[in-house]
Amino acid sequence: MIWDRLATTEFAGLDRRMPVILPIAAVEQHGAHLPLSVDCDIGSHFLAEAETRFGEDMLILPQIRVACSQHHMDFAGTLTVQSETFLAYAADLLESVIAHGFDRILIFNSHGGNRAIGHVLADKIGVRHRHCHVVMSTWWTLAGKALEPLQESAHGGVAHACEFETSVMMLAHPDKVRQDQITTMSHVATHEWAQEDMLHAARALLFRTMHEKSGGTGTVGDPSKASAEKGARITETVIDALRMVVRDLKAARPRRLVGEAP
To answer: Does residue 48 form part of some domain?
Structure first.
């Protein structure tokens, strides 16, 4: 179900054990072949698919579209807010949800730059509301190992405006993909311990702007390996993982505070 499609009187009949999903995304550059809306489009696509399949088990909040994209600001069109601004806004929004009696929160992220502050958000809400179940997930880490067999590009081929993101856009919004602008691998290597992509975390964080990572192209990875068919397989993989989390959250027992009688 979609939060803002309901009438206020309809909330009375909702099971407060239903997980409430907060989608967080970004409006930022994605190279020459994709629009600024990619992270918003992909997150919305996954949740729209989930809503048609098991929407009665979850409640989806309005998406936070502009978030933390400071590392993309070398590229025209990117919009961003400070991490502190995002944290304050998102936390206030979730306070509203909890005030209405919901205690299972899933932050569903579709932008790499939101991961760190997303975890801080989950910690902030979780500590403040000990009775709540609070989960933070990014779609490619949520699906995890199940996505690995879908990658055809070399290591580093799935990162930003890449094989995976371009594939999902070819499926969900083919009209937004500039096919004639798709290039092959674009990736600027760094220290071995700092190398990362969607499926492989770095052993230590080395801050680099997206301009540095992409060599100025705005693309990190290999979009030439993308296809709508692969986008469909990625979607099924992510939806399966999301269904599991929603199911487990809905079935979870209410959390008890320290010292509270069982």
So the answer is: yes
Answer yes or no: is 12 within a domain.
no
User: Rounded to an integer, what distance in angstroms lies between the CA atom of residue 102 and that of residue 21?
Assistant: 11
In terms of Cβ atoms closer than 10 Å to its own Cβ (0-12, 13-18, 19+), residue 136 is buried
- Which of 92, 110, 14 is closest to 57 using CA atoms? 14
Angle at 179 between CA 47 and CA 113, to 5 degrees: 45
SS3 158: strand
Please provide the size of the chain in residues.
262
185 pLDDT higher than 60: yes
**Domain range for residue 84?**
18-251
13 occurs within a structural domain:
no
Is the pLDDT at 80 greater than 90, yes or no?
Answer: yes
CB atoms within 10 A of CB 123: 12
Find the CATH number of the domain harbouring 138. 3.40.50.10310
Contact residues for 209 (Cβ-Cβ < 8 A; gap 6+)? 71, 72, 74
Q: Residue 113: is its pLDDT beyond 60?
A: yes
